[in-house]
């Protein structure tokens, strides 16, 4: 077996590992290793992403997020051209029951501009609740949450998950809340919204990059109480 074939065999074996049950941390390490170790490593990774997202249309997983993140940082013009050609609008197909355009949100998350994406997320939630038409209020009441369409809430959550290695999103926050027996103080602490029992100040005390704790983003104003976020965690979308 010549050297190139051996390399291709090693890449194939590593990709098989990626698609099996390994942790997100291990997936990230393997993807990075493939991208820098083998001549065609990045091409193989791009092929895997195309297979998963365009050809097979598999359910989203953290692997898709990691593949896109690593490839988007490639210094290869060929890889960047191909990535743009296949995924010019991102890796998430956008759905909205109210014809809301989520491409601007996807554009921000694709370049990991979490701070601006958080601002836009809050505006879009208010828009979904009809506040852009009927009110000058720019925050949600708990009674507004039931008005949020499931398709739209799912899309917003999926966008956050897919551009954060599955770390961020309302569903991630809800999972942490449930694992802590619905204890709000434990949730705030674990996702980094409080420090020693004191709420962090917006925006400078929050963490706007991938190194933030799981569930840190997007933000939700807990200073107004827990009724709104409790209603969000009880939304029907999480039970579909």
From TrEMBL:
Keywords: Chloroplast, Plastid. Residues 96-235 form the GUN4-like domain. Gene3D superfamilies: 1.25.40.620, Gun4-like. Pfam families: GUN4 (PF05419). One of its GO terms (molecular function) is tetrapyrrole binding. This is GUN4-like domain-containing protein.
